[in-house]
Amino acid sequence: MDRKISVPLSAEDAASLRAGDYVYLTGTIYTARDAAHKRMQEALDAGHSLPFDVRGNVIYYMGPSPAREGRPIGSAGPTTASRMDKYTPALLDLGLLGMVGKGRRSPAVREAVIRNHAVYFAAVGGAGALLSKSIKAAEVIAYEDLGTEAIRKLWVEDFPVIVCMDAQGTDLYETAAESFRREE
Amino acid sequence: MKTVRIEKVTDTVREMCMEVNYQLSSDMCKVFENARSTEVSPLGRQILDQLAQNLEIASKDRIPICQDTGMAVVFLEIGQDVHFEGGSLEDAVNEGVRMGYVDGYLRKSVVRDPLIRENTGDNTPAVIHYRIVPGDKVKITVAPKGFGSENMSRVFMLKPADGMEGVKNAVLTAVKDAGPNACPPMVVGVGIGGTFEKCALMAKQALTRPAGSHSAVPYVKEMEEELLERINRTGIGPGGLGGSTTALAVNINTYPTHIAGLPVAVNICCHVNRHTVREL
Ligand code: SF4
């Protein structure tokens, strides 16, 4: 099913999405990848607050290439989500409702997705030039010294993603590949 | 004896780094177009269409095809009658990479130390492989490698008794484990034989061979075709979301090996399999 959804996510939208839904996101999301996740975890361990309130928000696992003059961002496709698995359950338990990335997630992430009625979206890996066209503005809001790995707030319009893991824990990577398998 | 100015190497590498990140080579475009006409999954076709659109935008607007513009892998085939003048060859290559990545708005993805992890800020150093060959030409291949797929690559030290079946299973295992993480449809580079490091290098080199071309060795060509077909029967599909296009090509290189061994390396690459060649 094709759906247009606004971000940050409402609890109802997050819980109602189903694996396989094709979704266009409009609103604001935040980027964070390996180094930013490590810092956020260190902040939590030290009892500090995070650089942004994760409640209801969507994190995009992405580190862009530099923007040319007059553009908000360079190439901007997803990176492999599993490298963030170690940090993800804690963020979901704090109220994070969505993630955009590519690739499989760990059982612990799946449990946390179910527990918190959250959702994991896939964006098409290797389509960074195309995806950059749905990003209308970008602003570094934390960890600027990390360069491409800094946390950015993105204003997106009809950003195309596919629901890969829904609030019930259904994993499209498993079900879809299985239905096209033609091995003896 | 031919003299090559070192600045020429730098300029060439700089241009190649940019070009290769905005525009896929024609061999890749061709296998990609084939896949669009054969994919059976509707979502798979939709994803392949998005990837085709992505390629168009990238070359028209000079935006990198993928934000992971890779670690620059450079192969240098140097004629033994060539003399370089004006400085260090290694520095010249790295200077070309630095300029290409800075001037070309490419992402800087290299850290100075694997554990301390401070970004070098200019994507250097490159990984450079030198080979001395007869003649007076310099052949430069630039092949930036993204790490979503690099991370899924494997070396298997098989036993001679594992034979052909063992090799095929090793390749299929690596591809299935890579699955959606490697941004399928993939290109699979395989090195069989040699030593531990030789087979890995052959697998990397295999990725730079034109997609759709085949080994000149008949049994290797057959293996390439069979493996491509079997990989496409796994169902992984475009983006890992199901379908009949999991790989675009399987390229295999072989080399003599030891009586006691059968090393196999599988270098997984995504559909953004970048490689470009120039000769000086
Ligand atoms: S694996 Fe390839 S397509 Fe995917 S993010 Fe990395 S470089 Fe890009």
Defining key terms:
heterodimer; A: 184 residues; alpha/beta; fumarase; five-stranded mixed β-barrel; 25% helix; 27% strand; B: 280 residues; four-stranded mixed beta sheet; 8 helices; 10 strands; 40% helix; 23% strand; globular; binds iron/sulfur cluster
Cα distance spanning the termini of chain A: 32 Å
Strand order of the largest sheet of chain A: 2-3-4-5-7
Label the overall shape of chain A.
globular
Show the largest interface.
Answer: A-B, 48 and 51 residues
Rg of chain B, alpha carbons: 19 Å
How many DSSP H or I helices of chain A?
6
Q: Which distinct ligands sit in these coordinates?
A: iron/sulfur cluster
| Residue share in β-strands of chain A | 25-35%
Find the structural class of chain A using helix and strand composition. alpha/beta
- The average pLDDT value of chain A, as a whole number, equals 96
CATH architecture classification name of chain A: Alpha-Beta Barrel
Low-confidence stretches of chain B: none
Low-confidence stretches of chain A: none
What is the number of domains of chain A? 1
Q: Fill in the CATH topology of chain A.
A: fumarase
Helix percentage of chain A: 25-40%
Q: What order do the helices and strands of chain B follow?
A: EHHHEEHEEHEHEHHEEE
